[in-house]
Design brief:
The protein has 5 helices and 6 strands. It is α/β, with parallel strands linked by helices and 173 residues long.
Length: 173
């Protein structure tokens, strides 16, 4: 599996799965979540509402992941994951790692060969970008070692040069 870091707009990625750094409601928000909902169009919100009526009536738990179609995005699916909120005292790096592992599990279950991740937790949830990079890269590499799946490419798509550089350092170690 190839793992890479690029600077860019995750809503423009031509991959099988775009991972959304969602909130537990799955009903949209700011940052990456808002951008993905805006780019995907109203079908994404409708699909998320359907998940709330069925599979996750109480909201998606921190560290878990669930898929919807990608609607107007160039991807096939959106895998939504909820990062731990450091400001709310959720400081366990294992919860953060679970976001990446569970997203890959869901992507592999869909038969995806390519996955684009944002820096889950590094935005409004207050995690340091270098720590997110270390945890994310470790989680992806650990998943790769333990699972024979279909995922061939994992791309971290990062909004700033500073965050991209943090991921590049983590990938180099």
């Amino acid at each position: 599996m190839r793992v890479e870091a690029v600077q860019g707009d995750i809503t423009r990625e031509h991959v099988d799965v775009v991972v959304n750094a969602a909130n537990s409601s799955l009903l949209g928000g700011g940052g990456v979540d808002g951008a993905i909902h805006a780019a995907a169009g109203p079908g994404l919100l409708a699909a998320c509402r359907e998940l709330r009526r069925g599979a996750v009536p109480d909201g998606l738990p921190v560290g878990d992941a669930v898929a919807t179609p990608a609607f107007d995005l160039p991807a096939r699916w959106v895998v939504h994951t909820v990062g731990p909120d450091r400001h709310a005292g959720e400081t366990d790096p294992h919860l953060l790692a679970s976001c990446f592992v569970r997203s890959l599990d869901v992507a592999a279950g869909l038969g995806a060969t390519s996955v684009a991740f944002p820096a889950v937790g590094a935005g409004v949830y207050g995690w340091d970008a270098a720590e997110v990079a270390r945890v994310a890269v470790g989680a992806v590499r650990g998943w790769q070692a333990g699972v024979a799946g279909t995922v061939a490419v994992v791309r971290f798509v990062l909004v700033s040069a500073r965050v991209r550089e943090a991921f590049e350092r983590a990938l180099a170690s």
